[in-house]
């Protein structure tokens, strides 16, 4: 697995031009997550209304993988009904934690498939998941459930 | 200045023969995290298991005698390595455990009505520094929380030196805990001067010597501290073995952190008495083979010569600083000169996160550390989440520095 496989052009594009970045109102819940191994941080807000993700807004410091993964997530999930959001989150986590042995489902993941290479670099798994875990936490809080 | 014959030395380290990420030459610049091991250390550990393995300080069979002799010889060798007496050296798992042993002595004595020198009262102050590794920071936060003592700290200047504000050392100061050499900045702190200031008010000085003992001649007598902690694995030794050195009179009074087998004098159903140091602080069967490996590491380093190793590392550090300064967009976090500076060079790059920089370096065969290096408050002090750190040791050469610089340029181009 070489570096070019990891840094797909789509990742570099989202890193250089993050979509949806910045904190906005209104929001149903806000969370702050950190990656204790590298010090990267994200503050993320979610607005859920009528069972649809109306907005994901965030402020984050981090590497290209964490920034791009959050940006791709914004594009994939905003405007989606919850019952279509959870399978995407589940599939993304399955891919990233799959040690490079998981065949990704492009139909579910969309641009998220660009992160397949991350799974072969265990040290970067937490980078890719930082924003996604924050989203899961915030959304469950917005729905009045605990993050588990 | 004696120059090291690095080409010959490198042959003693089998791991340096391997390639990484395909067929890249391994450029190992992460000795600040852990060092590689020479055959002398690997063989010492293997010989111990093959020929002498037994539990120490118990049993009267021949193997038990040989194992005990090897273990106590290791203590004597390590003691000699730092200019100490053997009974002042306690074997621990690593420096983190050694520092916790001192911290817990204060906690336990305070809660148990223990000896006065280890008892803290509200209003007492523990003085640390902003450049500490978490290992010499978090334990003192815990002690302060448990005892009611107040935690204070020396700041760090913009050029990565300790801001030694003398007003911070007062009659209230009971403990001064400071690193000998910053694992991020490379800064070597003036321990003798700090110890003089601390002792003038009766405070005890605890030194994290993890990054100094492996890289330069350290004599605990000259250092002037009361406690010195270091790890074996950063000085060519195995993992799982570290040391706490302390002045004999302090060790004699110090309460243990762990209790149980081999640290006792007498045990009754309702109470026990403890063995004298160092056994009092080594409960359970210790890491014997690892101590024997550390013995071999000390002998190896002594044979090469600590002064030569230090001179060599300062030379490489100078090349790295000079080369990095020549790359547009790179900023070094730490002293720009080589005065009182060891071989850790940390830096940030405009527009490239350390994680990404480290990834490109790894792809080039260069192993560095990225992140906050267990010194998060220090990074916060410089308003950065993370740095990339190259750290050098005796087996690194000028080619390694050149590969670091080439890999860094490649990363900047890739993410431009």
Task: Kindly describe this structure.
The complex is a heterodimer of chains A (about 150) and B (about 425). With about 150 residues, chain A is of the alpha+beta class. Chain A is about 45% helix and about 20% strand. Chain A contains 6 helices and 3 strands, in the order H-H-E-E-E-H-H-H-H. Chain A has helices at about 5, 10-15, 65-75, 80-95, 105-110, 125-140; strands at about 30-35, 40-50, 50-60. In chain A, a hairpin with a 2-residue loop joins strand 2 (about 40-50) and strand 3 (about 50-60). In chain A, helix 2 crosses helix 3 (about 65-75) and helix 3 (about 65-75) packs parallel to helix 6 (about 125-140). The longest helix of chain A is centred in the last third of the chain and has 18 residues, at about 125-140. Chain A is globular and about 40 Å long. Chain A starts with a helix and ends in a 6-residue tail after the last helix. The mean pLDDT of chain A is about 90. Chain B is an alpha/beta fold. Chain B is about 40% helix and about 20% strand. Chain B is built from 13 helices and 18 strands. Chain B has helices spanning about 5-10, 40-50, 60-80, 95-110, 140-145, 190-200, 220-225, 250-255, 290-305, 305-325, 355-365, 375-380, 400-415, and strands at about 20, 25, 25-30, 90, 125-130, 150-155, 160-165, 175-180, 205-210, 225-230, 240-245, 265, 270-275, 330-335, 345-350, 365, 370, 385-390. Chain B has an 8-stranded mixed beta sheet with strand order 4-11-10-9-8-5-6-7, with helices on both faces. A 4-stranded antiparallel beta sheet of chain B has the order 14-15-18-17, covered by helices on one side. A two-stranded antiparallel sheet of chain B has the order 1-2. In chain B, strand 5, helix 5 (about 140-145) and strand 6 (about 150-155) form a beta-alpha-beta unit. In chain B, helix 3 (about 60-80) packs parallel to helix 9, helix 4 runs parallel beside helix 5 (about 140-145) and helix 10 (about 305-325) packs parallel to helix 13. The longest helix of chain B is centred in the first third of the chain and has 20 residues, at about 60-80. Chain B is globular and about 70 Å long. The interface of A and B includes residues 3, 38 and 127 of A.
